[in-house]
Each structure stands twice: as C-alpha cells, then as structure tokens.
C-alpha cells in the first residue's frame, strides 16, 4: 500500500478507503472540535500532495464528532507565543495544504456539520463541493479573538460570497446557516436531515465515475485559469482541452453517444 493512503501513518486524520478509489478523510480530534494544530496541517499536506499519484479518485472530507472544525488551534497558538516570523510560516503551511487541495486535481467533497468556523471555513473552502445539513453553521470569529485570517479566507471566502460579506462576517462574527448559506454560495447542497455525509458520498461516487484526467482538469485547471488574465486563460484552456478532450479513454464514451447508447441530458423530473 502506498504510504500516502496508509491509515497507520496518520494520527490526526482517519483515512478510509471505499470502493472505486473513493477515500474518506476525517479530521480526528473530536475532543478539540477538530481544531487545526501544526501536526494536522502537516498530515493534510502529506495526504493531498500524494493523493492523485496514489490512485485516489475522489475524497469526502469530514470531521469526527458534532463539529466539522473549530479552526486554528487557539490553545496551541497561545501556548507557543509565536513570533510574527513563526506564525507567517504556520500560515504558509496552511496555504500549502489548502492549495494542494484546491489545485491538486482530486475532487474533494466536504461533508459539513456543526461549526465550520475560522480556519475550519478556510479548510472547507478549499474543497470543490460543500454539503451542509440544517445544523451546520459558518462563521469567522477571528475579529472577536483579536486575530486575523491566515489560511486563505480573504481569497476563497471572498470568492464564494463576495468581499463585503466576508468583511461583515469577520467584523461582526455574523453566523450563516441553512438555505441562506447555500444561497450565498458557502455550500452547494443542503440536506433535510443530518445527512450531509450520505449526500457527499453519493456525489463522490458519481464523480469518481468520471475519467480521472477529466476530474484532474476540473479540480486543477479551473482554479489556475481563474488566476490568469482572460487572454492567457483562454489559451491555457485550449491547451488543457487539447490534452483532455483527446484522451484515449474518452473515445468509448464519445462512441456511445454517437451510437445513441449513452444517456441523454434531460431536465429534472
Ligand atoms: C479548541 C478550539 C480551538 C474548541 N482551538 N481548542 N476558532 C474559534 O474561535 C472557535 C473556537 N471554538 C468554539 O467556539 C467552540 O469550541 C465550538 C463552537 C467549536 C464547539 O463548542 P463546544 O461547546 O462543543 O466545545 P467547547 O467546550 O468550547 O470545547 C471543547 C474542547 O475543544 C475544549 O478543550 P478542553 O481540553 O477544555 O476540553 C476547547 O478548548 C477545545 N477547542 N475549539 C483549540 N479553536 C490561520 S489563521 C486561522 C484563524 C482561526 O481559525 S480563528 C478561529 C478560531
């Protein structure tokens, strides 16, 4: 077994393999509400740096216990009494982890519950799809804690809900939940009961049936292209399209369409 997907090599993450290259990655410090300490960030970097090469086709990311993630481990941070230089490097490791997630080419579906706050929201926002249930809530308590973001909220949360809503969240501690959170863009799906995990698994199963190179392009190229000028993005999209849209594995699917055996796109019933 590739060490990257070997559960025995992780302490703060629980890694479990399901069918079809689908993995569940669970933040596993429930007694600390899955707060992100240095060790957990290093484990996220390790898993998501190697996931694609280890054959992982999709990941459901969740948390053990009632809460997805309470953000930065405030107790570790307080005890370490870090210098600015030290904390800058902590933040750079967070970015390493979350960039590996967003740009790594493996689809990540976050099954969210309870608190998704501060750095927990930064982590969730590096996933490609977020599923919530009625008990899930989002907040950026940094303003009240006397600190600031450091794991990409200024980039990804702004991207999801707009700069001024993000500013309001961190200035006032405003909490978003339920359908309003979906309408704003904090999540793409909400379940009626506490079934965010079941829905995330269903989505991951479906996504894992796409060709891996297609999923790689979707979960890597789109984010890169969005960082480029329009001209460069159009050029790079053509290059990616050239590689992905001619992949030999796609021929069978294209042939099925041409032979009228492939499913057609129909409206929801
Ligand atoms: C923690 C943390 C944590 C809980 N760091 N230990 N994030 C926050 O400001 C959110 C802080 N946490 C909370 O508001 C609440 O803990 C929760 C809403 C998440 C959960 O409440 P509850 O009542 O279920 O749990 P609790 O009693 O508050 O905490 C249970 C234990 O988890 C307790 O430890 P214990 O050893 O005393 O049992 C807490 O100390 C521990 N715990 N949250 C450390 N965050 C790169 S910059 C990112 C900036 C940020 O992320 S700022 C936002 C930080």
What order do the helices and strands come in, and which of them pair?
Blueprint: E1 13-17, E2 22-27, H1 38-50, E3 58-63, H2 74-80, H3 84-103, E4 108-111, E5 115-117, H4 119-124, E6 129-132, E7 137-139, H5 142-145, H6 153-161, H7 163-172, E8 176-177, H8 178-184, E9 189-190, H9 196-207, H10 212-226, H11 230-244, H12 248-258
Parallel strand pairs: 2-3, 3-4, 4-6, 5-7, 6-9
Antiparallel strand pairs: 1-2, 7-8
Helix pairs in contact: 1-3, 6-7, 10-11
3-methylmercaptopropionate-CoA (MMPA-CoA) is lined by residues 31-33, 35, 67, 70-75, 91, 94, 115, 117-119, 141-142, 145, 147, 149-151.
Number of domains: 2
What is the name of the CATH superfamily of the largest domain? 2-enoyl-CoA Hydratase, Chain A, domain 1
Main beta sheet strand tally, sense and closure:
6 strands, mixed
Poorly predicted parts: none
For the biggest β-sheet, the strand order reads 1-2-3-4-6-9
Count the E strands: 9
Order of helices and strands: EEHEHHEEHEEHHHEHEHHHH
What fold name goes in the CATH topology slot of the largest domain? 2-enoyl-CoA Hydratase, Chain A, domain 1
Helix count, per DSSP?
Answer: 12
CATH class division of the largest domain: Alpha Beta
Distance between the amino and carboxyl termini? 43 Å
Radius of gyration, CA atoms, in whole angstroms: 19 Å
